[in-house]
Amino acid sequence: MQLEMGKSAREVAAELQLSFRTVENHRLRLLRKLNLNNSTQLIQRVTALKLLRACGVMD
Q1: pLDDT tens figures, 6-47
Q2: Which of 5, 8, 19, 35 is 20 to 30 A from 41, alpha carbon to alpha carbon?
């Protein structure tokens, strides 16, 4: 996840050749679906899920 690496939504949008609104809408939908309040929580959740998958807990 590029936001996890410290990139802004505008940087991600430019790199992926998408509009800023598209990237921002996807981020907001993830926050809503995962019942999170901010990007910090989103990054923590993504990091935790990656760790769980790496340990074979979530396959």
Answers
A1: 788 899 899 999 999 999 999 899 899 999 999 889 888 988
A2: 19
How many other C-beta atoms are found inside a 10 Å radius of the C-beta of residue 42? Answer: 19
Residue type, 25: N
The two tokens of residue 48 are 């935790």
pTM, to two decimals: 0.71
Burial category of 18 from C-beta neighbours within 10 Å (exposed 0-12, middle 13-18, buried 19 and up): middle
- For the chain, which residues make up each domain, given as ranges? 9-53
Contacts of 39 (CB under 8 A, 6+ apart): 3, 27, 31
Place of tokens 């999170």: 36
